[in-house]
Amino acid sequence: MAKRGNSVIGIDLGKRAYKAVLLNKKSETRYALTSFASHEVPEEMTTADEVAQHIKQLLKDLGGYTKSCALAVSEPGSLLRIIEQPSTPPELLRNALRYNGLSMLNQDCKDFVLDVASISNNGMAGATATSGEGEGAVAVQVQAPATTQTRYLVGGLLRSKVKEISEALAKTRLSIELMQLAQVCSFNAFEVAYPEVHQKEAFLLLDLGHLQSTVLIGCNGELTLTRSFDYGGKHFTQALTADGALDANAAHLMIQQGDPGMADICRNTLSRLCTEVRNSMGFFEGQHETSIHRLYVSGGLSRAEMILQTLSDELGLPCEIWDPLENCEVALPAAKRKNLQQEFVSLNVACGAAFEYLRT
After folding, report:
1. What ranges in 157-259 are assigned the alpha helix state H?
2. In this predicted model, what pLDDT tens digit does every residue of 33-79 receive, in sequence order?
């Protein structure tokens, strides 16, 4: 395999916005951010041409240049599970899942591009899909338990979606080196940004997306639980605006200003999210007899202090935003550096994709 370069564009194909970072590798443990961009997109795009046009606009906003691209996909229809099986070569297990998904995962997997990574403590594995018909790969560092069963991370994306994205990227100047699920990228980015927490503590990552939110729970370097549920920024905005009775921008401004009426609406609509998070924590703590003491939040909604405070109050735990660039140098012009203060909360997925490329 050709030696990888020292720079890469990490792209997060979200449902509300596409995000990109341009990262350079300075040494084995040092990275530098030289550019970033965010570009809003329609919620529904039906053709590869549409996707390609928005990616091209994102790249124009990004500036800079490198051909290599590490791609992350935020897709409600994706599949991400942790399973236990007798030790099996990943290729054989992937085929077994494809044809026996109903018995092994309670889900038919024939229409998915699947990949499997055995969970081990031998370093982070890559995640790759380079063509519409090629096999995607999703892998993440986790610690292998001392048991006769082996833990595997199973990732999948609908074959039609992989094909659409691959066709779209073929219309750009980029070369896809990796394709990953967004949840895995977020977990990988947290490891780079907060290695001590990742390796030595129990932690919960809550990513607030547009159509869904995701909970990832890790403990001592191991991904132990992943859950996604249908509540995100779209549902939050609908609650604030009473399905359009109030202008969305005005509603979000009132949230930023701490309006008491909005605080009540905020608490009511977030109650569903808090219930899902609380249930996830309870399941983990019951299984592992380990407590979670802090939640790390990402996504556009986490910019609002009112939202973080509501989550903290309802869950009884500190909730804080985390910075995927915590251990990166920031080599940006002054104007873009200022914008980064608002945008970093949504760059975790794009950063995770880029990190995976640079350290593989």
Report:
1. 159-170, 182-193, 195-200, 233-241, 248-256
2. 999 999 999 988 879 999 999 999 999 999 877 889 999 998 888 99
